[in-house]
Specification:
The chain is α/β, with parallel strands linked by helices. The chain is 40% helix and 17% strand.
Amino acid sequence: MVDVALWYGERSGGIRTYLDAKVRYALESESFEHHLVVPGRRDLRLGNRHELRALSVVTSNGYRVPLRTAPLEDVLLSIRPDVMLVHDPFWSLPAAARVGAALGAPVVAVHHASAALEAAGLPGPNGLYRRGLEAWRRHAYRRADAVMSAEGATAGLGVTRLLPLRFGVDPGFRPRPATPREDHVLYAGRLSREKGLFDLLEAASRARQPWPLRVVGSGPARPAMQSAAERLGIADRVSWCEFVTEPRALAREYAQAACVVMPGRYETFGLVALEAAAAGASVVTCDSAPSAAIAARPEHTFGPGDTAGMLRAIERARRAPVDMVSAARVAARYTWPAAFAAELRDLEELVR
């Protein structure tokens, strides 16, 4: 099996978490041979990890974009995989489709981000970008043998064969009853406009009780967020922390917060909410995120774009008692080994 991912940076989020967990599972279980192909500073092979030279485009997250697909096709042909999972429709999918046709190997397009999410992160005419990205995806996905996606995320894209995209959490995300719960609200993740962060700042500015907001992560929107906090008069209530990579350290961040907020309306899944729930945090999320049904109580969700609803959900979540029993159930049920064992069964059926 080979996974190819364009948006795999040093400080990227859910895609890297998923792929790094799969690399570990393949090594520990020895149930399949796994290769990972990603952009890098230079052409490099370390065991079954292949990096292809690419240009840096987003320094805050380490994202890189290759200029050509030919090196990717050469690597895939040298691996000769039984199945290819491609995690973007721009670089990976066209190259993998050509190699798949040559080798007779099925190609699975893994759907991580909607056109709405991608368009929201671009300056300019959002509607125009969204329609263009949706058209590109419909065209690109026709070249795949199947699409792997969280439930409901591919509606309207004309997908005929759909495989479930499953998630888990690292063992470090476990309930921490001995960790003192503090007064602050926490956001953890990439700092970009499409993540709903300016709505979160607006909600914080409207709070009757001036609770502190802790922002953990890195991304291009940080300067604009700091300016917005100044403009809203809450700069003294907002603290900033760099990207946290170690699961146990991040779990402590979750457990210490009065609540963890995932404010974006366009999340394809929302792994942060699942991790925070497993760590015993009180979680607030937009009800459009698939993980909301798993990680947040109904009264701790809000509708897309409803800043007042977000504030009400935060206030309820801050007062709510922590449910360690539910947290333990989430942590026990959503494990990476269980997710990848089920994924492997789906792929074996596809290859047959």
